[in-house]
Amino acid sequence: MYIVEELYQLFYIIYTQFKLIFPFWITGLAIGSFISVFFAEKIAKIVEQINPKKFYLLGVLSAAILGAASPLCMYGTVPLIAVMGRKGTPQYFLVSFMVSSILINPNLFIYSFVLGVPIALLRLFFSILAGVCAGILVHYCYKGKVFFDFESFDGRKSLAKSHSLKGLLQDIHKAIQITAPYFFIGILLASLFEVFIPKMWIINLFGTNRELGVLLAVSLGVPIYVCGGGTIPLMRGWLNTGMSPGAVIAFALSGASTKLTNLSAVKIILGIKHFIAYIVFHMLFAILTGWLIDWIYRIF
Predict the structure, then answer these.
(1) What is the pTM of this model?
(2) What's the N-to-C CA distance of the chain in angstroms?
(3) How confident is the model over 29-75, as pLDDT tens digits?
(4) What are the TM regions of this chain, as residue ranges (predicted)?
(5) CB-based burial of residue 195 (10 Å sphere; 0-12 exposed, 13-18 middle, 19+ buried)?
(6) In the chain, what are the domain boundaries?
(7) Rounded to whole angstroms, what are the CA distances from 88 to 17, 21, 65, 135, 155?
(8) Taking a C-beta distance cutoff of 8 angstroms, is the pair 206, 247 a contact?
C-alpha cells in the first residue's frame, strides 16, 4: 500500500511538473528557432561588421550581448569565430562573444523563467558579465599574443537556412528531437528527487553552509549538466527543497561551460594551455557568482 501511495505521488508530481514547465519549454524552442531561422545570418553579419578596436570596452560588451542573443550552438559559433579571427577581429571580442554564447541563448533564457523571474534575469546578467570579464582578461593578458588556434580548423558551417514557415517548422522539429529526451528525463529525475530524497538532506547539504553549497553545486554541474533544458526541472526541484539561488546559478554556469559538447567544440580553436585557462576561468567565475548572489539575497 505504501508503494502504491508513493507511485501515485510520483506520477502526480510528474504531471504537475510537466504542466508547469512544458509551456516555457515549447515557447523557448519556438522563439529560439524563429531567431535561428530568420535572424542568425543577420546576427553573424552584425558581429563581423562591428569594429571594436577603438573602444574595446564597448566592443567587449557588444560582443557579450550578441553572444547571449545568438541562437547558434557551439558547432555553429566556432566556424563564425574562426572566420572573424582570420579577418583580424580582436581576440578579446571573439572571446566575449564565445563565452556568453556558451552560457546562454534565447531558448534557455525563456526556459529559465520556470525558476522564477529573478533567477532567469540573474542567469542572463551573469552570462553576459562572464563574457565581458573574459574579454577584458584576454585584452590585458594576451595583448600581442595569440590566444586562438585556427590552424587546425578549416571551413565554415553555413548559417543559411530556409527563411520560410517550412524552415521554421523544420528547425522546431529538430530542436524538439534533440531536447525532448532530456526534457522528460529531467522531469522524471526531478520528480524522483522530490519523492524519495528527504528535504532535510538538501537543506543540510546546500542550505546550512551556503558557501560550501555553492562549491558543491559547481562540482555537480560538471558531470550532471548534459543539456541546458534538461537540467531546468532539476534546478527547480533543488530550489524548492532548499538550494540557494547562488548555488543554482553557479550550477548553471559551471555546467553550461563544461558540457561535453561545448568543451569538444571549444577545444578545436584553443590549445591545451588556453583550454585549461578556459575551464579554470569558468569554475572560478561560477563560484564567485554564486557567493555574490547569496550575499545579495542575504542583504535584501
Answers:
(1) 0.83
(2) 46
(3) 787 678 767 776 676 667 666 655 567 788 899 999 999 998 877 76
(4) 20-40, 55-80, 92-114, 120-142, 182-202, 214-235, 247-269, 275-297
(5) middle
(6) 2-299
(7) 48, 43, 20, 16, 17
(8) yes
